Structures are given as structure tokens and as C-alpha cells.
Amino acid sequence: MLVEATVGKVRLLCRAILAASLSTFVFASAAVALHAQADCLTCHGDASMTDAAGYSIAVDGTKFGASVHGSLQCSNCHADIKGYPHPDKVATVECATCHSDQADQLKGSVHADSKDHPCTSCHGNAHEIFPKTDARSAVYPLNVPKTCGQCHSTDGMAGKHGLASVYPNYIDSIHGFALSKEGLLVAANCQSCHGSHGILSHTNPKSPTYKANIPKTCGNCHAKIDADYEQGVHGKAIAKGNLSAPVCTDCHTAHAILQPTEAAFRMQSTPICGNCHKDKFSTYRDTFHSQLGSLGGYVETARCWDCHQAHDVRPASDPGSPINHANLVTTCGRCHSGANLSFVQYQPHANARDRKLNPGLYFVRLFMNLLLGSVLTFFLLHTILWLIRSRYSQVKNKGANGGKNA
Ligand code: HEC
Ligand code: HEC
Ligand code: HEC
Ligand code: HEC
Ligand code: HEC
Ligand code: HEC
Ligand code: HEC
Ligand code: HEC
Ligand code: HEC
Ligand code: HEC
Ligand code: HEC
Asked: Using CA positions, which residue lies closest to atom 2 of ligand 8?
């Protein structure tokens, strides 16, 4: 306590002396050259210092000294301040003088507007910038989502530009959970998929989030899955430029990615395959597996990918496909122990409305419908005749007992 108080007093004294000598120089109308940080901090090191408008102009010398720019002189950034008094209007700091690569990339990006997006909008306090590998940095992997989320969340600045809120979805996703709860540095943060300074809209073919580039973007980390996907029919279609085939985010979403074993994912993904394969979806829905799946949210039944695989999806004609006739015993056998050739005659996509594809079923269905129709017609006729007859005997009876019981 005593030591601190003494140091404080000494500091104050020094400041007073410097300020006094500065004033002397100022009054003598000779500007004082200020070289060292300490020269500037004599005044700006006072935590309570504000400018005429009441805006804080204090700089924490200790934090600044520890920051990545701690060895620079104040005037390396505040290039127009060489001494005291200051120029009336201090020029805006140009980070680009030393970091031209980042500045050039930013200029070509969605965040090009330098008023809305100064470097400090992502890097935080200009005097407390740390290397990206330092946990104190605003762009340290674990801090990136919060940094981007300042604007890309409900009520954030991006919302006012008509963009959807992203942060809440992301933070509840498998990646957000891995990052914020498990502290996994290797989990995907905003920067892993979007980049940092050169961020482009997903409609730009050069963007890592452009549809055709997404498998590679996710594949930077999920390498084996990307390799499987590229071998499958969907991956090959995308590689050929057929953008109607699905990429990772069509099935997983970009920001609300769930763990695929979760019930919510298994329940919602069947309709996702079904969005594009409408005919197969409707025939699947007619079958036992789906009927079971829709009863009380039962999730263990066969979903599309349990028979087709999720990533290395192939047509039935491909001998490597799990639904190729030669592989069905193995495919169905994963769940039906003892499945044999006669068991796999069962058709998961049987379509009783299609005469060419399933003639047997078609005629059985036709016969059953005809039977149902004729039985119904017979009983309808029978009921009508019976009604007419009973009315007839009522009228007849009325006549017989003089209308008393009518
Ligand atoms: C003798 C005290 C003193 C010293 C030394 C001093 N300043 Fe200042 N500085 C001030 C005051 C007072 C203001 C507020 C001026 C105002 O309100 O317009 C200020 C304002 C500023 C501003 C903000 C201008 C703005 O637009 O709001 C910057 C930047 C600044 N000083 C940088 C420096 C740097 C860099 C040094 C060292 C090279 C330095 N100052 C040295 C007193 C000082
Ligand atoms: C890495 C560059 C950099 C260095 C080094 C730097 N500053 Fe700054 N300073 C900035 C930026 C950026 C701003 C925000 C205003 C702007 O964009 O011009 C700023 C603003 C200020 C302000 C205005 C109040 C505020 O916080 O917005 C003061 C005062 C100031 N600096 C003083 C100093 C002093 C004193 C030093 C040395 C100890 C210093 N600066 C070193 C970049 C720097
Ligand atoms: C939209 C947010 C954003 C803006 C705006 C931004 N940065 Fe960055 N910056 C980042 C992120 C995120 C990283 C970390 C990149 C990584 O981990 O690879 C980073 C990293 C850096 C690095 C470390 C080297 C590198 O490129 O990875 C420097 C230097 C840097 N930024 C300077 C700047 C400068 C200078 C500006 C202004 C011209 C700026 N940044 C504007 C988000 C931003
Ligand atoms: C006078 C030159 C200069 C200016 C101006 C300058 N910097 Fe730096 N910056 C450096 C130097 C030198 C380093 C340290 C480089 C190193 O250690 O690799 C650095 C490092 C950084 C880093 C950390 C890079 C990493 O490895 O993660 C970031 C982020 C950064 N600067 C951002 C900024 C921002 C934002 C501004 C503007 C407010 C700015 N710089 C202004 C010289 C400057
Ligand atoms: C200071 C607020 C702010 C910060 C911080 C910020 N953004 Fe943005 N971002 C915006 C605004 C505003 C737009 C819309 C730009 C426009 O259309 O003029 C935008 C646009 C985008 C877009 C393009 C959307 C589209 O398709 O048009 C992406 C992607 C994006 N930001 C990602 C990020 C990422 C990733 C980060 C963090 C590294 C980040 N942003 C940090 C405000 C911010
Ligand atoms: C796993 C990869 C991934 C991560 C992590 C990620 N994004 Fe995205 N983001 C994408 C993809 C891919 C798109 C393209 C649109 C789509 O497929 O939905 C996108 C689209 C966007 C858009 C544009 C939305 C629009 O309406 O056009 C913004 C803004 C955005 N992301 C911001 C962020 C922010 C902020 C974070 C971090 C909190 C983040 N993203 C994390 C992959 C990712
Ligand atoms: C920076 C690396 C990285 C990128 C890029 C990335 N991921 Fe991930 N992802 C991970 C990590 C690490 C995990 C594991 C998290 C855990 O288990 O806690 C994960 C988990 C997942 C899971 C859950 C897996 C499971 O079994 O729990 C899915 C699904 C997923 N990611 C899909 C994607 C998609 C789709 C993309 C692209 C839009 C993508 N990832 C981009 C690193 C990444
Ligand atoms: C056609 C839809 C679809 C596409 C496209 C797709 N996935 Fe999947 N993905 C799934 C399904 C369904 C599962 C669940 C598989 C299971 O439970 O057996 C899954 C599972 C996963 C898993 C968990 C590990 C596993 O195999 O169970 C990860 C990680 C993953 N996908 C990432 C990706 C990445 C990265 C891409 C793009 C290269 C991608 N997915 C493309 C539907 C898809
Ligand atoms: C975004 C739309 C889309 C989604 C979602 C989708 N597919 Fe596909 N699928 C296609 C397209 C387009 C093709 C044809 C690719 C080609 O050969 O050019 C295809 C081809 C196939 C084939 C090969 C059929 C044939 O006739 O060659 C199978 C099997 C298949 N998909 C199964 C699935 C399964 C299982 C899922 C869900 C896990 C799924 N698809 C999700 C669009 C989609
Ligand atoms: C119980 C296993 C099983 C399930 C579940 C299943 N399928 Fe199939 N699927 C098959 C078999 C076996 C074939 C090949 C014989 C046939 O066409 O009936 C096939 C054929 C297909 C084909 C045509 C492939 C070709 O090469 O002609 C597509 C597309 C398809 N299924 C999509 C789906 C979709 C989408 C779902 C979920 C809504 C789904 N399947 C659910 C087993 C299954
Ligand atoms: C992911 C696991 C799974 C796969 C793969 C699977 N099934 Fe099933 N299947 C089930 C479940 C669960 C039931 C309902 C419980 C039961 O009766 O065994 C069922 C029921 C059935 C039934 C009606 C009840 C019965 O046992 O006779 C038939 C027929 C059937 N499946 C045929 C197939 C055929 C053919 C294949 C391969 C093309 C197949 N299944 C693949 C899980 C699966």
C-alpha cells in the first residue's frame, strides 16, 4: 500500500513536471517532440482522462505494452502526431501502412465499407491487439464466433442489412458446442468456413461457401467423408456442375448442424432426401419401415441412408452399391439377422400403382380395390332398397290403422 501510494505520488509528480515543461515550451510556442510511448502516456496513461466531449482518451500503458504492438511507438500508428500540442484534427490510423495484404483483401470483401467495418470491428480495442494464437485475441479461434456474432445475431448490425441471425444457431450446433463447451480449437468456427478478411457472399463462385465449393471447405477437416462423398453419385454430379445434387449443407445445414445419431436429425433427414427424390419418398412412406418410423417418433427403423449410405451413394446398377442385388443380404442383414435371398425379395420401394414396375402388386391392388368397390356398391344398393321397402310398409301400415300411430 505504502509503496503503491509512493509510486503514485512520484508518477503524479513526474507528470506535473513534464506537463509543466511542456506548457513552458508551448507557451514559448515551440512544439515539443514526443518520441517515447512514455511521453504520450504521461498524459494519456491517466485512466480518467477524457477529451472536451467527455469521451475517454485514456490508454492502458501496461496492456498496450503487452500487446503485439507493444514495441511500436505511438506515432508509428498516430503518424501525424509528432509532438505537443496535437494537430487540431488527428488523422485516422491507417493499419494498411503495415498490413497491406489484409487491408487489400478486406477491400474486396462483403465487409469493404471501412466506416462500418474498421479493422477494430473484429480485432477489438486498437491498443490491445494480440496475435491470433493468443487467448486474449478477439480472433483467437474460441473467440471468433462472439466477435462475428456482435453483428451477426438477433439485433446485430447485419440484421439491419437484411441478413439472417446466425450466431444463436451456430452456438447450439455440434461445432458451436465443441468449441464453446469442449474448448476444441479444431472445431469449425466462422473463420474456418468463411475465411477472415476476404469473406465473400455464398452467391460468388469464388467463395468457399459457394455451393460447388462446400464439400472441399468441410473436407478441409472431414477429409474421409469428403473422399466418400466425391466417389458417390451426388459428389460426381456436383463435380460435373449439376448443382441440383446435394452438398454437405443440403443435408446437414450450414450453421445448425446436429449430431447425426440424434433423434432430431434422423427424423428430419428422411424428408430431406425425399425433397429431391419425391417418388422414392412416397413409396418408402407406404412401406413398413416408414410406417414404423412415424409411429411415436420411433428412430431405430431403416432410414434412406441405412440402406443407401449417406455419402457414398450409388445407383442400384453399381456393383459397389449397398442396394445392388448382390449386396442386399449384407445390407438388410445389418438389422435383420438371418436375412437371406428370399427375405430380400421384399421391395422397400414397392409401388402398387405402377403396373410396369410391380405387376404382381399392381394386380393384387386392382383386385382388392375392385373387391372393395363391389362389396360397398352391393351394400349401398341393399341399404337403399331396404329403406324404400321399410318406408313402403310404414305407409301401408298407416293406412291400415287409420293414421293413429303415425
Ligand atoms: C500534455 C498532455 C498530452 C500529451 C503529452 C499527449 N496528449 Fe494526446 N491528447 C491530449 C489532450 C488534452 C487531448 C484531447 C484534445 C481534445 O479534447 O480535443 C488529446 C487527444 C489525443 C488523441 C485523440 C484525438 C481525437 O480525435 O479525439 C490522440 C489520438 C492523441 N491525443 C494521441 C497522442 C499521442 C500519440 C501522443 C504522444 C505522441 C500524445 N497524444 C501526447 C493531451 C496530451
Ligand atoms: C497499432 C496502432 C496504434 C498504436 C501503436 C497506438 N494507437 Fe492509439 N489508436 C489507434 C487506433 C486505430 C485508434 C482509434 C481511432 C482511429 O481509428 O484513429 C486509436 C485511438 C487513440 C486515442 C483516442 C481515444 C481512443 O481510445 O479512441 C488515443 C488518445 C490514442 N490512440 C493514444 C495512443 C497512445 C498514447 C499510444 C501509445 C502508447 C497509441 N495510441 C498507440 C491505433 C494505435
Ligand atoms: C470481419 C472481421 C475482420 C476484420 C474487419 C479484420 N480482420 Fe484481421 N483477422 C480476422 C480474423 C478472424 C483473423 C484470424 C485469421 C486466422 O485465424 O487465420 C484475423 C487475422 C489478422 C492478422 C494476422 C495474420 C492473418 O492474416 O491471419 C492480421 C495482421 C490482421 N488480421 C490485420 C487486420 C487488419 C490490418 C485489418 C483492417 C484492414 C483487419 N485485420 C480487419 C478478422 C478480421
Ligand atoms: C507501424 C506498423 C504497424 C501498424 C500501423 C499496425 N501494425 Fe499490426 N503489427 C505490426 C507488427 C510489426 C506486428 C508484429 C508482427 C509479427 O510479430 O509477426 C503486428 C501484428 C499485428 C497483429 C497480430 C498478427 C498475428 O500474428 O496474429 C494484428 C492482428 C495486427 N497487427 C493488427 C493491426 C491493426 C488492426 C492495426 C491498425 C489498428 C495495425 N495492426 C497497425 C505493425 C503494425
Ligand atoms: C461490425 C459488424 C460486423 C462484424 C464484426 C462482422 N460482420 Fe459480417 N457483415 C456485416 C454486415 C453489415 C454485412 C452486410 C454487408 C452489406 O451487405 O453491405 C455482413 C456480411 C457478411 C457476409 C455476407 C452475407 C451475404 O451473403 O451477403 C458474411 C458471410 C459475413 N458477413 C460473415 C462474417 C464473419 C464470418 C465475421 C467474423 C469473422 C463477420 N461477418 C463479422 C457486419 C459484420
Ligand atoms: C461449417 C461451416 C460454417 C461455419 C462454422 C459458419 N458458416 Fe456461415 N455459412 C456457411 C455456408 C456454407 C453458408 C452458405 C449458405 C448456406 O449454405 O446456408 C453460410 C452463410 C452465412 C451467411 C450468409 C447468410 C445469408 O443469408 O446469405 C452469414 C452472414 C454467415 N454464414 C455468417 C456466419 C457466422 C457469423 C458464423 C459464426 C458464428 C458462421 N457463419 C459459421 C458455412 C459456415
Ligand atoms: C475446422 C474444421 C472443421 C470444418 C471446416 C468443419 N467441421 Fe464439422 N466437425 C469438426 C470437429 C472437430 C467436429 C467434432 C466435434 C465433436 O465431436 O465434439 C465436427 C463435427 C461435425 C459433425 C458431427 C459428427 C458427429 O459424429 O458428431 C457433422 C455432421 C459435421 N461436423 C459436419 C460438417 C459440415 C457439413 C461442414 C461444412 C459445412 C463441417 N462440418 C466443417 C471440424 C470441422
Ligand atoms: C445426401 C445427404 C448428405 C450429404 C450430401 C452429406 N451428408 Fe453427412 N451425413 C448424412 C447422413 C444421413 C448422416 C448420418 C449417417 C449415419 O447415421 O449412418 C451423415 C453423417 C455425417 C457425419 C458423421 C459421421 C458419420 O458418417 O456418421 C459427418 C461428420 C458428416 N456427415 C459430414 C458431411 C460432410 C463433410 C459432407 C460433405 C462432404 C456431408 N456430410 C455430405 C447425410 C449427408
Ligand atoms: C438436393 C437434392 C438431393 C438430395 C437432398 C438427395 N439427392 Fe439423391 N440425387 C439427386 C440428384 C440430382 C441425383 C442424380 C445425380 C446424377 O446422376 O446426375 C441423385 C441420385 C441419387 C441416387 C442414384 C439414383 C440414380 O437413379 O442414379 C440415389 C440412390 C440417391 N440419389 C439417394 C439419395 C439419398 C439416400 C439421399 C438422402 C441421404 C439423397 N439422395 C438426397 C438429388 C438429391
Ligand atoms: C430398407 C432399405 C431402403 C430404404 C429404407 C430406402 N431405400 Fe431406396 N432403395 C432400396 C433398394 C433395395 C433399391 C433398389 C430396388 C428398387 O428400386 O426398389 C432402392 C432404390 C432407390 C433409388 C433408385 C436407385 C436406382 O439406382 O435406381 C432411389 C433414388 C432411392 N432408393 C432413394 C431412397 C430414398 C430417398 C429413401 C428414403 C426416403 C430410400 N430410398 C429408402 C432400399 C431402400
Ligand atoms: C437400420 C436397420 C434396418 C435395415 C438396414 C433394414 N431394416 Fe427392415 N426393419 C427394421 C426394423 C427395426 C423393423 C421392424 C422390427 C421388425 O419387425 O424386425 C423392420 C421391418 C422389416 C420388415 C417387416 C417385418 C419383418 O421383419 O418381416 C421387412 C419385410 C423388412 N424390414 C425388410 C427389409 C429389407 C428387405 C431390408 C434391406 C433392403 C431391410 N429391411 C433393411 C430395420 C431395418
From this structure: 251
Residue of 192, 222, 238, 262 to mutate, ligand 7, most atoms within 8 A of C-beta: 222
Cα angle at 375 between 369 and 377, to 5 degrees? 100
Ligand with minimal distance to 25 CA:
1
Do 236 and 230 meet the contact criterion of CB atoms below 8 Å apart?
Answer: yes
Q: Which atom of ligand 7 is nearest to the CA of 193?
A: 5
- Last residue of some domain: 93, 113, 130? 93
Domain boundary (144, 165, 194) is at 194
Q: Is residue 404 part of a domain?
A: no
217 & 253 share domain? yes
DSSP states of 374-403? HHHHHHHHHHHHHHHHHHHHHHHHHHHTTT
DSSP helix/strand/coil, 340: coil
pLDDT tens column, 262-304: 888 887 777 889 999 998 988 888 877 877 666 545 557 888 9
Mean pLDDT of 90-106: 96
- pLDDT tens column, 373-392: 888 888 889 999 999 999 98
Q: Are residues 327 and 344 in the same domain?
A: yes
Mean pLDDT is lowest, of 146-160, 196-210, 241-255, 274-288, for 274-288
Dump pLDDT digits (tens) for 394-403.
Answer: 888 876 654 4
Q: Domain residues for 376?
A: 359-398
Tell whether 405 is covered by a domain: no
Question: Which of these, 165, 53, 167, 66, lies nearest to 125 by C-alpha position?
Answer: 66
Going along 167-266, which residue ranges are E strands? none
Tell me how far apart the alpha carbons of residues 307 and 322 are, in angstroms, rounded to a whole number. 7
Is residue 254 a contact partner of residue 313, using CB atoms and an 8 Å limit? no
Side chain identity at residue 216, one-letter code: K
- 27 is a domain residue: yes
Give the distance (Å) from ligand 8 centre to CA of residue 216: 14
Same domain (yes/no): 301, 319: yes
Note whether 125 and 141 are same-domain residues.
Answer: yes
Number of domains in the chain: 5
Q: Is there a domain that residue 33 lies in?
A: yes
> 15 or 305, which is more confident?
305
Whether 269 and 215 share a structural domain? no
CB contact burial 323-347 (16+ within 10 A = b; e otherwise): beeebbeebbeeeeeebeeeebeee
pTM, two decimal places: 0.90
Whether residues 112 and 180 fall in one domain: yes
